[in-house]
Specification:
Blueprint: E1 12-16, H1 25-38, E2 43-47, H2 54-68, E3 77-80, H3 89-108, E4 113-117, H4 124-132, E5 135-141, H5 144-147, E6 151-153, E7 160-163, H6 165-181, E8 186-192, H7 200-216, E9 219-221, H8 229-232, H9 244-247, H10 255-271, H11 275-294
Parallel strand pairs: 1-4, 1-5, 2-3, 2-4, 5-8, 8-9
Antiparallel strand pairs: 6-7
Helix pairs in contact: 1-2, 4-6
The structure holds adenosine-5'-triphosphate and magnesium ion.
Magnesium ion binds next to helix 1.
Length: 302
């Protein structure tokens, strides 16, 4: 099914997905992107939400801000899959799919990570991205309305009755992936916009999600709190992971900023990305390079 899933695949694919709109996909993927860039990895990003293009705008804002103030902020190798306006749905899907696969084929050998943002609704490209994912991150607002895209709860017992549409989409994506290259999808659900006070809703959501995670085969991350810092930096293309004290000296780092940064770092840890493996490969490449450099220059034939 996927021509890109061959032995040449190198980059680890992280997809941010949830059929529920406004759950924090774009905010999360932007923070993961900057975290990996700042750690020195080669990162390609793809925006599949070709209507809103918020991820593309976030990155464009970062580029503009960097240029305007002569900063040295790291940027990913970013790609947007443009909407195709063919008259027939099958042509449209086919053309968009080809564009997407072309991008993946182009970036996968040159990058350590590919991060893909998906729209908050079902669609052909969104499904394709899910079946390519090595890691799927699903941000989820702490509300049963949002929970409902994953599973339906029995109002009396509070137990999960039935899997919902998005959960079934992920199950199918996992199946497709196994058929394509035997790969496994690691699914991590992240509660987003958590209130900082303990409430009954917070606790019962935790219990329901814990229950559901066993049925879905997903892992739960600790979560990201509701914080202004996650909202206000979009126009500058900045994130809680940037050194805001150095970039905006008049806006001093707050405790909330540091806490936000820590939450994103904890999320990265929970994702268990193949960072050690990549570091080992890099070290080997560096050692090979240094060994070459230390040999005397071959002057024979000069
Ligand atoms: N942890 C957070 N704290 C405060 N605001 C947040 C947080 N996460 C996201 N937001 C805000 O919530 C809104 C939705 O976030 P975002 O655009 O990232 O969601 P999305 O899932 O990508 O939405 P869509 O489905 O429309 O693409 C935005 O206004 C964003 O700034
Ligand atoms: Mg979005």
């Amino acid at each position: 099914m996927f021509s890109v899933k061959s032995n040449q695949k190198q980059a680890h694919v992280i997809v941010c997905g949830n059929e529920k709109g406004g759950s924090g996909k774009t905010t999360t993927i932007m923070h993961l992107t900057v975290a990996l860039l700042n750690a020195g990895y080669r990162v390609a990003t793809v925006d599949l939400d070709n209507r809103q293009q918020s991820f593309s705008r976030y990155i464009a804002n970062r580029e503009l801000f960097t240029k305007r103030f002569g900063l040295n902020l790291s940027l990913p190798d970013h790609h947007t899959i443009k909407q195709d306006y063919s008259d027939y749905i099958s042509d449209k899907e086919n053309n968009e799919l080809v564009s997407f696969l072309d991008v993946i084929t182009d970036v996968q050998a040159k990058n350590d990570f590919i991060l893909i943002d998906t729209p908050g609704h079902d669609g052909y490209l969104m499904r394709m991205a899910h079946s390519m994912a090595d890691t799927l991150v699903t941000p989820l607002n702490d509300s049963y309305v949002d929970f409902d895209v994953l599973g339906q709860i029995d109002p009396e017992t509070g137990k999960v009755d039935q899997l919902s549409h998005y959960a079934r989409t992920v199950r199918e994506a996992r199946r497709q992936r196994r058929i394509a290259d035997g790969g496994l999808l690691d699914w991590v659900v992240v509660r987003n916009r958590l209130t900082q006070i303990n409430s009954r809703n917070k606790e019962s959501m935790y219990n329901s999600l814990n229950n559901l995670s066993m049925q879905l085969g997903c892992r739960l991350a600790e979560g990201i709190s509701e914080r202004v810092i996650f909202r206000e930096l979009f126009p500058k293309g900045l994130t809680a992971l940037d050194d805001l004290d150095a970039i905006m000296p008049n806006k001093r780092g707050t405790a909330s900023h540091l806490a936000a940064r820590q939450e994103v770092r904890s999320l990265i840890t929970v994702l268990k990305l193949p960072i050690d493996e990549l570091n080992k490969k890099r070290q080997e490449a560096r050692d090979a390079f240094l060994e070459k450099q230390s040999k005397p220059i071959d002057t024979i034939g000069m």
